[in-house]
Structure formats: structure tokens, C-alpha cells
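ok trying this again, last paste got cut off
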Amino acid sequence: MLNRLFHVAINSTDLDRSLAFYQRLGFTLLADRKVNNDLVKTAFLVPTGDFRFAHLRLGDDEQATVLDIVEWYNPATAPVSGDPVSQHQQGLTRFSVLTDDTQRVYDELSAEGVEFLTKPESVLTPEGGWKVCLIKDPDGVVVQVTQLLPAPTEA
């Protein structure tokens, strides 16, 4: 019935700022468009059809999942006050990107003042594991930076 995960949508209060953040993480800009179409209100249950969106992708695979970042106008994207979504609450809480070196991502972006919620931590299982850290995008969306780790070897 379904083919693949197409995109993850993120609402932004400043699309240019969000684009700079995600491009710094290595995403490539595929599209950047302004739209004014009242049919969007019905299709997406939003109060306006006036917005700008950008599509970004990691890597060269044309089938890879896309980030769909939207800045709404008239009314503007509503900012959320408070902390990011609790990671143990119901619903979508974060999305994850793969890297070969979580520590390097953390070190480089921390030096640039990017806000991390956690430091890199290795979580191991008998089958392998992950080295992860959580970062906040400019609008508070949580991005999990993930390095896949091999299964531990027995000495």
C-alpha cells in the first residue's frame, strides 16, 4: 500500500536560519519556493495558504527521505514556548541522521555555538549499538546524530 517515507515536515519561524543550520549539517538544498494557494488550507488543515518551503536531502540517493521545512505567512509560523518535546512523550519526538563520527559532529558544532541537549554517548547491545547525541535546530526540533557501532568483540 505504501512505498517509502517521503519527507519529514518541520515548521520554521525563520526559513533562512533553518536552511543555514541544516546545510551546515550536510543537507543539500533541492527546492526553495514561495506558495500562495488557498487549497493548502483545506489539504493540510492550516489557517493560510501563504508560505515558503524548502526541500533538503542528505546524500545523493534520489529516493532518500527529504526534509520539508516550511515558514508560514499571514499568520506566521507560531513559535512554541518552552523546552523541546520530551523524548518519552507520545508522538513524534525527533528524527535521526547517520554519521561516521558523532564525536566530530559534536566537537565542531559545539565550537560554533550550536546547542546540544546531550553529549555523545555509546549505547551498546550484543548485536552492536549507537553513539548518539541530541541537538536542537533553531526552532527547537530535536535531531538525533547517530553513529552505528559494531558488535563488541570478545577478548
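PB: full thing came through this time. The first strand starts at residue 7 and ends at 11.
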